[in-house]
Amino acid sequence: DPNMKAGAANEGVLASFFNSLLSKKTGSP
Amino acid sequence: QNTIQEKTHEFFQMCDIKDKGYITRQDMQRLNGELPLSPEELERVFDTLDSDANGYLTFEEFSLGFSSFVSGQTFP
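^ inputs. structure came back:
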């Protein structure tokens, strides 16, 4: 299902985004 | 729960640089130099979070995205 794949990809990029914000805030990678 | 709300608020303010109360696509692109994400990825983050696709990311939309991220992850 292409929609499910797109959804999973978006979740991945959201996770990267929020993880980056968390790292930036705490100063740890 | 309070911690999550605080974090959501902090992150929203990091993106909402001019304290407008919403995040635009341009605000998101400005994070390009600060976060290790490509402009395309930031664009995708914005589109995913902007659930009503009106070009403005409100605190509620941002909060919803962050909550779903937190609920699917082990929070440090």
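Chain A has a mean pLDDT of 80. The first helix of chain A runs from residue 2 to 26.
thumbs up if we can close this ticket
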